[in-house]
Predict the 3D structure of the following.
Amino acid sequence: MYHGHSRLLCLWLVWLFFWGYTCSLQAQPTDLRVEARSYIFDPETEIYRYEDARFEWGTIALEGQKVEFLRKENLIVAQGFVRLREGSITLIAEGLEINLDDNSGVFREVFFFDAKTEAYITAREIRRVPEGYFIGYDCTFTTCIPEQPAWEIRGST
């Protein structure tokens, strides 16, 4: 029973802190602004492949070593060191996928910091479903410095 409560608490905390971040993930391809060191476009698949890229849409900025924009699917896929910022929120991940049509997404090996609330969340994976909920896998939450927290809440699914 204890594990069930910690899982629910972790999911609720992840939802609470990501809720503000996801409210503005409703861009269309025309809203995208891209800067990159280099890119390749495959006209057959309509996939843009960028290196050392910075994407901006709405109030969101995404930087990544390798970023693909799959135009047909309206999907952004990033790998390597990926940083996403919106307002006081900074999300760092090893990889992510964001569907710009329904705002669903998958973030892998995530470090999340909200400067406004001074909250830290780490997770192996966080999934955002179209309804706006987040599901965290193997996650921790703290308001302490995450390297040596005085306290943290752990949860897994």
